[in-house]
Amino acid sequence: xxxxKIGDKTFQSRLFLGTGKFGSNELxxxxxxxxxxxxxxxxxxxxxxxxxxxDMLQHINKPGVKLLPNTSGVRNAKEAIxxxxxxxxxxxxxxxxxxxxPDPKYLLPDAVETLKATEELAKLGFIIxxxxxxxxxxxxxxxxxxAAAVMPLGAPIGTNKGLLTRDFLKIIIEQSTxxxxxxxxxxxxxxxxxxxxxxxxAVLV
Length: 205
Prior knowledge:
Blueprint: E1 4-6, E2 9-11, E3 15-16, H1 25-35, E4 39-43, H2 55-60, E5 66-70, H3 77-91, E6 95-98, H4 111-123, E7 127-132, H5 136-145, E8 151-152, H6 166-175, E9 181-183, H7 189-198, E10 202-204
Parallel strand pairs: 3-10, 4-5, 6-7, 7-8, 9-10
Antiparallel strand pairs: 1-2
Helix pairs in contact: 3-4, 4-5, 5-6
């Protein structure tokens, strides 16, 4: 499989890793090494803003691994833009996984605020990977707004139910001119394999 290019970076691995469910930072660090991932996302709210002093960061900062800060916990575009600017200053990266979910129970993304934030952040020079519903129309709008990739969900976060949005993912993959990374709902290796068989460019687990 050929390398995957997103923004200004090329990845050999199509497996991206989240950090929200590990029992310890040590276990997370072991998983990063074992998976051979090259992109790890972590919520700004969980990272010490004094980069380099945080125990979690110590386990993420490994050779060949890029940190992708995310805005999980913000409720609107204004909060997301503020968090993005903090991340760029603290971690010296313009990469951002954009997550806006005002409902803390189900963590479903707000399409209107996500599109608004993407438009503004693109103007500020960010490489934006928005987490979104599997909405083909929204994905095309985000492309036009400047998203470097789109990250439609397979199922609600934490459910491990696989690709419940399969039919919509197929349309997104067919129409997209930016990489499609299936995010959320992947709870088994077979789910990740199915996403790749559909034509997704990568998966985040």
